[in-house]
Amino acid sequence: MSVPGRKVQLATAAMLVATTVAACGGQDDSAPKAPATIPELTKDPLTLSFIWFDWPPAHALEAFANAEYTKERSNVTIKVKTVPNANWHDAMFTQFAAHKTDFDIPILDSQHIGEAVTNGNILDITDFVKKNIDVKAYNPYLLAAYGQFPQAETGKRDENASLYGLPLLGDTWTMIYRKDLIGDKPPQTWDEMISVAEKCQADHPGVSGLAFHQANGSDAAAVTYNTVNGVYGGNLWDPKTRKIDGVLNDTAGQEAMDVLVNKMKPLTAKGSGNWFIDEVNAAVAQGKACIAFNWIAASGGLLDPKQSTLGTTREQILDKLGFATLPSQKTNLVPLGGMGMHVSAYSPEANQAEALNFMKWFEQADIQKKWAAAGGVPSRTDALESPEFLNAQPFNQVYTDSVPRMRDMWNVPEYARLVDIENTNVNAALNGAKTPKDALDDIAKEQQGVLNASSRKGGGGL
Amino acid sequence: MSYSAPLTTDHPGQVASATPPAPGRSRRLGDRRLAVAFISPALLLLLAMSVFPLLWALYLSFTDYSATRGGPAEFVWFENYTAILTSPQVHLRALTTLIYVVGAVTLQTVLGFAIAYLISRRTHGRGLLTTLFLVPMMLSPVVVGLFWRFMLDAQFGVINSVLGSLGLGQVEWLTRQRTALISLILVDTWQWTPFIMLIALAGLTAVPKYLYEAASIDRASEWFKFRTITLPLVWPLLLIAVLFRAIEAFRLFDLVYILTSGGPGVSTETLSFHVYKVAFLGFNTGTASAYGILMVLVVIVLTQLYLRYLNKLKED
Q1: Do A460 and B65 touch (CB under 8 A)?
Q2: What is the pLDDT at residue B171?
């Protein structure tokens, strides 16, 4: 080989070694801190980018922020980048993995916070919140759910814990029921709801008794099981001992799975085993379901006459559709939905400063009321109880009433794998691919395996 | 030729080319440098985009590295490989993938060859028919997935609507264990049968006509001509098409992602879809790298065996 050839070979080897060392180099696991006071803002044109999944609130946020925030900051343009719901986690975390993001404000599901914080991907905004946000204005549970990490064991906010986000959009499930088919009074217990749905289905051929999320994408089927689990007095895990096996699949958990698969599933439409938000809304809008469950923030389209066969005006639709809080049974727990906004650690300094300024602006009482009127679901107590929010949509009262009843999932770095295990197994049980007991035991066993594996070094991770 | 010499003198370019190289300048070296200059951008791109990631994945496959968890990568040697090869989950996905590959490729080969054979016997409208048959292949798999997701919807889909109008019951195409995998095979067949058809058609049109003419003179039957002339001559080309399709089918991801998300449960979760979950839901980068390397190895080994068979066939 000629000398230049050797040089090239050596240079290539050096490059490979250097890249290897750089890529494997230690990373700082602790989240970088945001300043307590907002740094001086730029006067140059700036685009503040969010990332969210594609649904009506994302478009509402972009329109609202560009209309209102730019009144104060005319050089700023707000861009809400959207991806399909199923890609939302991957779209954010692959960029976090690359340590470079094309967004400034990731809108994280409450359960994503652990994964984002542990790897230093979002800013610790504890000091900023202390100095700029009136934390007493919020239900402490909501503030904890959308911003605090580690998750409070009680669900309540720990005032000494660090905050990494602030609420952007609150959410929970609402029960949507056909007043013209089952009457004006919504069922009060889960058992009553099942029997009402059974009768409605029998009385109205072509209309299914129930419609709910069953898909194995995102967190669809998992939230459905978690909701029934909560209502029947079950627990998802013991956060103190990090024990899932033996807790999730205890007697209460098994009863919940039995109710879901053997009592609720037979009341759903044939082939609804892959339904999520849009499919449930479509079934309601086309008059194909007596009772349905869906996220409040995704329910606005139900009242649009263009998308509904239930009436030609909003009033006609409202004559047929009622919205209520979820029935209770052994407990009255409801699922916590919604998301918080956070600041990307990889965003340029000028954008991080603008992001903090936006958060401070957004969390003001009057802006939260305006956000509520624009279709958002606020988290400040004064906004939640304001006429602007309560009168904006017929289901908003449901949200306000549900806040004290909420229960979240596990907020741990292993969240994505835990929810996938639960989704696939609940989906399997709902579609006859596994027995309810096997599905529940498999969830408990596999999830426990993930938690156990995370505490030790080594391969695996399947 | 007698006029070759005057041509040289009449064309200045050719006169100039006859001039010997300047003293000290190596013409051979110049060519080599030129070749290096032309090749190096493509070579560097190949190294950066293909070779380096492959080597990098190979390195990561022996570590416990996670792209998001941070911290240095620690060598776990063959632990990832052992975990994958002994995992019942992986075995289940491998079986699903095998059923899918065999089912889809067999169906596509039979249909593709049959369509090609019928088209090749036509003299009029062959081009138009071929173009029409090729349309599904030109669509993005994501578009095909979404399109068929609506078509196969148990409640609102066209397929069940047609079945209903024929007095047949509704089929839960995408949400039942048995039908979900069949649906995937059918959709993939709809999209990729034209590929086999195209290759088979090329083979069929290349069969020399005189062989058929000779057989006709000998009063050979159509079946005899097909069995002794058509099939043996088209077979090697068809096997290459099968190889390409099998490799593609082995990597199936997009249709699963759009149509079933691997469900119900994990009954349509292929190896590729599982690798995606390991890589991006858990960000177990080391394990996912080992998984990917193993998949590449399986493809390489099977392809080598297949190519040996093809070569043997050619020699015979």
Answers
A1: no
A2: 94
Strands (E), A179-277: 208-211
* Mutation to test the B interface, candidates A20, A95, A100, A274, most B Cβ within 10 Å: A274
pLDDT (average), residues A50-57: 95
Strands of chain B (E only): list them. Answer: none
Check if B281 contacts A (Cβ < 8 Å): yes
Contact B287, B80 (CB under 8 A): yes
pLDDT tens across A118-173, in order? 889 999 999 999 999 999 999 888 999 999 998 766 567 888 899 999 999 999 99
Provide the token pair at A345. 């650690």
Cβ–Cβ of B266/A424 closer than 8 Å?
A: yes
Interface contact flag, A417 B71, Cβ < 8 Å: no
Phi, psi dihedral angles at B78 (to 5 degrees): -95, 15
The neighbouring-strand residues paired with A107 are: A341
Cβ–Cβ < 8 Å for A157, A165: no
Residues with Cβ within 8 Å of residue A32, at least 6 apart in sequence:
A120, A123, A124, A345
Q: How far apart are CA A244 and CA A420, in angstroms?
A: 15
- Integer Cα distance of A328 and A49 in angstroms: 40
Q: Which residues of A422-441 are buried (b: 16+ CB within 10 A; e: fewer)?
A: bbbbbbbbbbbbbebeebbb
Strand partners, A211: A292
**Residues in chain B closer than 8 A to A430 (CB atoms):** 264
pLDDT tens across A257-295, in order?
Answer: 999 999 999 999 999 999 999 999 999 999 999 999 999
User: CA nearest A22 in B: which residue?
Assistant: B72
Q: Is B264 on the interface with A (CB under 8 A)?
A: yes
- From A96, A272, A434, residue closest to B265, measured CB to CB: A434
Residue A368, Cβ neighbours under 10 Å: how many?
A: 24
pTM value? 0.89
Q: Select the residue of B73, B153, B261 nearest A271 (Cβ to Cβ).
A: B153
Q: What angle do CA A302, A176, A168 make, to 5 degrees?
A: 70
B284:A215 CB<8 A = no
**Closest of B263, B244, B265, B262 to residue B254, by C-alpha:** B262
Which of these ranges, A8-17, A146-155, B115-124, B153-162, has the smallest mean pLDDT? A8-17
pLDDT over threshold 80, residue B76? yes
Q: B82 to chain A: which residues are within 8 Å by CB?
A: 459
**Closest Cα in chain A to B36:** A5
Peptide bond into B264 cis (omega under 30): yes
- What local confidence, expressed as pLDDT, does residue B8 receive? 42
Interface test with A, best of B46, B163, B266 (most A CBs within 10 A): B266
Output the average pLDDT for chain A: 91
Q: What torsion do the CA atoms of B103, B109, B115, B119 make, to the nearest 10 degrees? A: 170
The pLDDT of residue A119 is 82
**Confidence (pLDDT) at B3:** 41
* pLDDT at position A86: 87
CA-based Rg of chain A, rounded to a whole angstrom? Answer: 24
- The answer to whether B183 contacts chain A (CB < 8 Å) is no
* A415 CB-near residues (< 8 Å, 6+ apart): A111, A112, A114, A115, A409
- pLDDT one-digit tens code per residue, A451-462: 998 876 555 578
Task: Give the end-to-end CA distance of chain A in Å, rounded to a whole number.
Answer: 45
What is the predicted ipTM? 0.87
